[in-house]
TrEMBL record:
InterPro entries: Rieske_2Fe-2S (IPR017941), Rieske_2Fe-2S_sf (IPR036922). GO terms for molecular function: 2 iron, 2 sulfur cluster binding; dioxygenase activity; metal ion binding; monooxygenase activity; oxidoreductase activity, acting on paired donors, with incorporation or reduction of molecular oxygen. Signal peptide: none annotated. This is 3-phenylpropionate/trans-cinnamate dioxygenase ferredoxin subunit. PANTHER family: 3-PHENYLPROPIONATE_CINNAMIC ACID DIOXYGENASE FERREDOXIN SUBUNIT (PTHR21496:SF23), FERREDOXIN-RELATED (PTHR21496). Residues 4-103 form the Rieske domain. Pfam families: Rieske. It comes from Blastococcus colisei. Keywords: 2Fe-2S, Dioxygenase, Iron, Iron-sulfur, Metal-binding, Oxidoreductase.
Length: 117
């Protein structure tokens, strides 16, 4: 695992998200009910930034909503919780140390895809 500092915790609204552009991928770093998540900043249905959508609970899951067509993505797994999206968005492990937020965007197929702290 290779965690990289992506932002300060105070840079992210609660609840809310922040777009972070890295070399290989753009991610949405999301705060919801005290937890921090990282999800690829791209709706799998319409290829628009998820970071521009609302962060809310949907059917008991912390989600981010695509502003264009309303699909929600579970922040823990990346799975869409409603149509029109049917494909998941990638999620990444997050670590918070004090005021710093770190994300590991290296994909390791031996680990389950999940993000939380």
């Amino acid at each position: 695992m290779s965690f990289e500092r992506v932002c300060a915790l105070s840079d992210i609204k609660e609840p809310g998200s922040l777009r972070v552009e890295l070399d290989d991928v753009d991610i949405a770093v999301v705060r919801f009910e005290g937890d921090v998540y990282a999800i690829e900043d791209l709706c799998s249905h319409a290829e628009v930034p998820l970071s521009e959508g609302d962060v809310e609970e949907f059917k008991g899951a912390p989600t981010i909503e695509c502003w264009l067509h309303g699909s929600c993505f579970d922040l823990r797994t990346g799975e869409p919780t409603n149509l029109p999206a049917t494909e998941p968005a990638a999620v990444y492990p997050v670590r918070v140390e004090g005021e710093d937020v770190y994300v590991d965007v290296e994909i390791d197929d031996s680990l389950p895809a999940a993000a939380s702290n």
